[in-house]
Amino acid sequence: QEEKRQLTLKVEELERKLDSTSAQNIEFLQVIAKREESIHQCQLRLEEKSRECSSLARQLEMAIEDAKRQVEQARERAVSRERAAQSKMLDLETELSRNKTELNQLHRNKEDAERRYESRLQDLRDRLEQSESTNRSMQNYVQFLKSSYDNVF
C-alpha cells in the first residue's frame, strides 16, 4: 500500500507535470500561432512592398526614359535653333556684303553724278558768261547804232 501510495503520489505529480506541460504546450502553440500569423502578415506586407517597389522601379525607369527623351528633344531643338541662327547669320552677312557693295556703287555713282553736275554747271556758267558777253556786245552795238542813227538824223 505504501508503494501504491507512493506510486499514486508519483502519478499525481506526473499528472500535474503533464497538465503543466500541456498548459505550457498550449501557450507555446498559441505563441507559435501568433508568431506564424505575424510572419504571415509580414510576408504579405513584404509582398505588397515588393509589388510597390517593382511598380515604383517601373515608374522610375519610365520617368528616366521620358527625361532622356525630353533631353534629346531639347538637344535636337537647340541644334536646330543653332543651325537656323547660323543660317540666318550667313544670310545677314551675305546681305550686309551685298548692301556694302551696293552702297559703294551708290557712292561711286553719286561721285560720278556730282562730277558730271559740276562739269555741266561749269559748262552752263561758261555758256552764260559767253551769252552775257555776247549780250553786252550786242547791247553795245545797238547803242552804237542808236547813237549813229541819232547822229545821222
Automatic annotation (TrEMBL):
InterPro entries the record matches: Odf2-rel
Keywords, alphabetical: Cell projection, Cilium, Coiled coil, Cytoplasm, Cytoskeleton, Developmental protein, Differentiation, Flagellum, Microtubule, Spermatogenesis
GO cellular component: centriole; centrosome; microtubule; motile cilium; spindle pole
Cell compartments where the protein resides: Cell projection, Cilium, Flagellum; Cytoplasm, Cytoskeleton, Microtubule organizing center, Centrosome, Centriole; Cytoplasm, Cytoskeleton, Spindle pole
Disordered: annotated span: 75-118
Domain of life: Eukaryota
Main location: other
Composition bias type Basic and acidic residues, residue spans: 75-85, 108-118
GO biological process: one example: cell differentiation
Family listed: Belongs to the ODF2 family.
Protein name, UniProt field: Outer dense fiber protein 2
Organism in which the protein naturally occurs: Zosterops hypoxanthus
